[in-house]
Amino acid sequence: MDKKAETEVIERALAAACANGLNARLVKSKGRRGDRKIHEQVQLSTGTKYQFEVKTGLRPATLGAAIHQLKSIGPLSLLVADYITPPIANTLRENNIPFLDADKRTFQTSLFRTASDPKLPFSNFGSLES
């Protein structure tokens, strides 16, 4: 995916997140992940910063590779995708992969925690992580 298309997906996902009450923004970074430089991260209003991977056209056939790639990043990895179907969202949650969906009509994220117990796995319902 070229940089322009990647930037568009990121901007749409962050706009969808903000429109749905999740304050997230792109911040510059000077870190490294293996042999790759990290130029940007997604930061929540809580200060948590996520290294992210952008995926378009995510399908069940490509999901395993995406999950493996995100797990190799570490615990603060984030999938930013143009559209995530409900079954793919469930699989991502089962694998504890946080994600943002760029489609405003069907916006989904796993960056919400349940209000009753913030230690529970990610879900689409509840208050913002605290």
Structural commentary:
The protein is an alpha/beta fold and 130 residues long. The protein has one domain: Trna Endonuclease, Chain: A, domain 1 (3-Layer(aba) Sandwich), CATH 3.40.1350. The chain has three helices and nine strands, in the order H-E-E-E-E-E-H-E-H-E-E-E. The chain has helices at 3-19, 60-73, 86-94, and strands spanning 24-28, 32-33, 36-37, 40-44, 49-55, 77-81, 99-101, 112-113, 127-128. The strands form three sheets. The chain has a five-stranded mixed sheet with strand order 1-4-5-6-7, sandwiched between helices. Strands 2-3 form a two-stranded antiparallel ribbon. A two-stranded antiparallel sheet has the order 8-9. The protein is globular and about 35 Å long. It starts with a helix and ends with a strand. The model is unreliable at 113-130 (pLDDT under 50).
Task: Write the topology of this structure.
Layout: H1 3-19, E1 24-28, E2 32-33, E3 36-37, E4 40-44, E5 49-55, H2 60-73, E6 77-81, H3 86-94, E7 99-101, E8 112-113, E9 127-128
Parallel strand pairs: 5-6, 6-7
Antiparallel strand pairs: 1-4, 2-3, 4-5, 8-9
The Rg value, from CA coordinates, equals 14 Å
The arrangement of helices and strands along the chain is HEEEEEHEHEEE
- Topology, number of strands: 9
Strand content: 25-35%
C-alpha end-to-end distance: 34 Å
Strand order of the largest sheet: 1-4-5-6-7
What would you call the structural class? alpha/beta
For the largest beta-sheet, the strand count, sense and barrel status come to: 5 strands, mixed
Poorly predicted runs of 5 or more residues: 113-130
